[in-house]
Amino acid sequence: MMLDEKDLKIIEILRRDARTPFTEIARKLHVSEATVRKRVDALEKMGVIKGYTIVVDPAKMGFSTVALVGINTNPDMFLSVAEKLTEFEEVRFVATSTGDHMIMAEVWTKNGKELSSLISEKIGKLEGITHIRPAIILEKLKEV
Protein backbone atom coordinates (compact mmCIF):
# COMPACT_ATOMS: atom_id res chain seq x y z
CA MET A 1 0.00 0.00 0.00
CA MET A 2 1.34 3.41 -0.97
CA LEU A 3 0.96 6.31 1.42
CA ASP A 4 -1.23 9.10 0.14
CA GLU A 5 -1.44 12.76 1.13
CA LYS A 6 -3.94 12.10 3.96
CA ASP A 7 -1.70 9.39 5.44
CA LEU A 8 1.26 11.77 5.35
CA LYS A 9 -0.77 14.51 7.04
CA ILE A 10 -1.93 12.09 9.75
CA ILE A 11 1.67 11.06 10.36
CA GLU A 12 2.82 14.68 10.56
CA ILE A 13 0.07 15.59 13.07
CA LEU A 14 0.90 12.57 15.25
CA ARG A 15 4.64 13.20 14.93
CA ARG A 16 4.14 16.69 16.35
CA ASP A 17 1.83 15.45 19.12
CA ALA A 18 1.06 11.73 19.40
CA ARG A 19 -1.76 12.55 21.83
CA THR A 20 -3.81 14.43 19.22
CA PRO A 21 -7.33 12.99 19.35
CA PHE A 22 -8.58 11.29 16.20
CA THR A 23 -11.56 13.65 16.25
CA GLU A 24 -9.23 16.64 15.94
CA ILE A 25 -7.25 14.99 13.14
CA ALA A 26 -10.50 14.19 11.35
CA ARG A 27 -11.63 17.81 11.66
CA LYS A 28 -8.32 19.12 10.28
CA LEU A 29 -8.43 16.72 7.32
CA HIS A 30 -12.19 17.00 6.68
CA VAL A 31 -12.79 13.26 7.07
CA SER A 32 -14.59 11.11 9.63
CA GLU A 33 -13.02 9.89 12.85
CA ALA A 34 -13.56 6.31 11.63
CA THR A 35 -11.47 7.11 8.53
CA VAL A 36 -8.62 8.41 10.68
CA ARG A 37 -8.84 5.39 12.99
CA LYS A 38 -8.72 2.95 10.03
CA ARG A 39 -5.79 4.76 8.45
CA VAL A 40 -3.82 4.84 11.71
CA ASP A 41 -4.52 1.13 12.25
CA ALA A 42 -3.29 0.40 8.71
CA LEU A 43 -0.16 2.54 9.24
CA GLU A 44 0.57 0.62 12.45
CA LYS A 45 0.06 -2.77 10.76
CA MET A 46 2.35 -1.76 7.88
CA GLY A 47 5.04 -0.75 10.38
CA VAL A 48 5.03 2.89 9.28
CA ILE A 49 3.98 3.90 12.79
CA LYS A 50 6.15 1.80 15.09
CA GLY A 51 5.03 3.23 18.41
CA TYR A 52 4.24 6.31 20.44
CA THR A 53 6.54 8.03 22.87
CA ILE A 54 7.10 11.11 24.97
CA VAL A 55 9.87 13.70 24.80
CA VAL A 56 11.35 14.66 28.15
CA ASP A 57 13.83 17.27 29.31
CA PRO A 58 16.84 15.37 30.72
CA ALA A 59 17.88 18.31 32.93
CA LYS A 60 14.49 18.37 34.65
CA MET A 61 14.97 14.68 35.43
CA GLY A 62 18.35 15.32 37.05
CA PHE A 63 20.56 14.57 34.03
CA SER A 64 22.57 17.76 33.54
CA THR A 65 25.09 16.15 31.18
CA VAL A 66 23.90 14.81 27.84
CA ALA A 67 26.55 13.67 25.39
CA LEU A 68 26.78 12.22 21.93
CA VAL A 69 29.46 9.57 22.01
CA GLY A 70 31.17 8.39 18.85
CA ILE A 71 32.66 4.92 19.17
CA ASN A 72 34.94 2.96 16.86
CA THR A 73 35.59 -0.75 17.22
CA ASN A 74 37.48 -3.56 15.65
CA PRO A 75 35.41 -4.42 12.56
CA ASP A 76 34.60 -7.94 13.78
CA MET A 77 33.26 -6.57 17.11
CA PHE A 78 31.13 -3.79 15.61
CA LEU A 79 27.65 -5.25 16.14
CA SER A 80 28.40 -6.92 19.46
CA VAL A 81 29.66 -3.62 20.91
CA ALA A 82 26.56 -1.79 19.64
CA GLU A 83 24.33 -4.43 21.23
CA LYS A 84 26.23 -4.24 24.55
CA LEU A 85 25.78 -0.45 24.63
CA THR A 86 22.00 -0.89 24.55
CA GLU A 87 22.25 -2.65 27.92
CA PHE A 88 23.55 0.41 29.79
CA GLU A 89 20.79 2.42 31.46
CA GLU A 90 22.61 5.72 30.82
CA VAL A 91 22.68 5.06 27.07
CA ARG A 92 19.40 6.37 25.63
CA PHE A 93 20.06 5.90 21.92
CA VAL A 94 22.40 3.71 19.87
CA ALA A 95 22.87 3.75 16.11
CA THR A 96 25.39 2.22 13.78
CA SER A 97 26.75 4.74 11.31
CA THR A 98 29.21 5.61 8.60
CA GLY A 99 31.53 8.57 8.67
CA ASP A 100 33.69 9.59 11.60
CA HIS A 101 32.42 6.87 13.96
CA MET A 102 31.04 3.37 13.56
CA ILE A 103 28.59 3.74 16.45
CA MET A 104 26.84 6.82 17.82
CA ALA A 105 25.23 6.83 21.26
CA GLU A 106 23.35 9.43 23.27
CA VAL A 107 24.23 9.25 26.94
CA TRP A 108 22.49 10.95 29.90
CA THR A 109 24.37 11.35 33.18
CA LYS A 110 23.92 13.48 36.27
CA ASN A 111 27.22 15.31 35.74
CA GLY A 112 30.57 15.26 33.95
CA LYS A 113 32.16 13.05 36.59
CA GLU A 114 29.48 10.41 36.07
CA LEU A 115 29.97 10.64 32.28
CA SER A 116 33.72 10.20 32.70
CA SER A 117 33.17 7.20 34.96
CA LEU A 118 30.71 5.62 32.52
CA ILE A 119 33.16 6.01 29.66
CA SER A 120 36.20 4.73 31.53
CA GLU A 121 34.64 2.02 33.69
CA LYS A 122 31.86 0.62 31.50
CA ILE A 123 32.00 1.62 27.85
CA GLY A 124 35.81 1.72 27.67
CA LYS A 125 36.07 -1.80 29.05
CA LEU A 126 33.94 -3.37 26.32
CA GLU A 127 35.96 -5.76 24.22
CA GLY A 128 36.76 -4.49 20.75
CA ILE A 129 36.54 -0.72 21.30
CA THR A 130 39.37 1.25 19.69
CA HIS A 131 38.26 4.90 20.15
CA ILE A 132 35.66 6.79 22.19
CA ARG A 133 34.89 10.42 21.36
CA PRO A 134 32.30 12.09 23.62
CA ALA A 135 30.80 15.49 22.78
CA ILE A 136 28.68 17.14 25.45
CA ILE A 137 25.52 18.75 24.11
CA LEU A 138 25.23 22.35 25.27
CA GLU A 139 21.73 23.04 23.95
CA LYS A 140 19.25 21.24 21.70
CA LEU A 141 17.73 23.65 19.23
CA LYS A 142 15.34 21.19 17.59
CA GLU A 143 13.97 17.82 18.55
CA VAL A 144 11.38 16.05 16.49
Give a quick precis of the structure.
36% of the residues lie in helices and 21% in strands. It has 144 residues and is of the alpha+beta class.
Features:
144 residues; 4 strands; alpha+beta; four-stranded antiparallel sheet; single chain
What does this structure look like?
- By secondary structure, this protein is of the alpha+beta class.
- The protein contains 5 helices and 4 strands.
- Strands 2-3-1-4 form a 4-stranded antiparallel sheet.
- Helix 2 (22-29) packs across helix 3.
- 16% of the residues are buried.
Beta percentage is 15-25%
DSSP summary, beta strand count: 4
First-last Cα distance: 26 Å
Biggest sheet, open or closed, and with what strands and sense? 4 strands, antiparallel
Rg on CA atoms, Å? 20 Å
Shape estimate: elongated
- SSE succession: HHHEHEEHE
Report the total helices. Answer: 5
Query: Class by helix and strand content?
Result: alpha+beta
Instruction: Report helical residue fraction.
Output: 25-40%
The main sheet orders its strands as 2-3-1-4
Low-confidence stretches: none
The whole-number mean of residue pLDDT values reads 95
Q: Strands, helices and their partners?
A:
Elements: H1 5-16, H2 22-29, H3 33-45, E1 65-73, H4 78-85, E2 91-96, E3 103-109, H5 112-122, E4 129-136
